[in-house]
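Encode chain A's predicted structure.
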Amino acid sequence: DAETRAYADYINSFARERAARTPLSYVVTIAAAQIDLGNIDRWYTRDAGERIGDYTVYRVKLRP
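Encoded structure for chain A:
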């Protein structure tokens, strides 16, 4: 329970400035999985993704 609360606190305190310190260029997911990218979409825009084998690769850019 304590770790769950600590992670929730981390997510809730995450801000654009923190995302900008170590920006992402790509996000890779398993294509067959239903992945919630809501937290990524909060700070980044992403393209439609490209299927490569068993994976989907998204190009992402930090939102202004």
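The mean pLDDT is 94.
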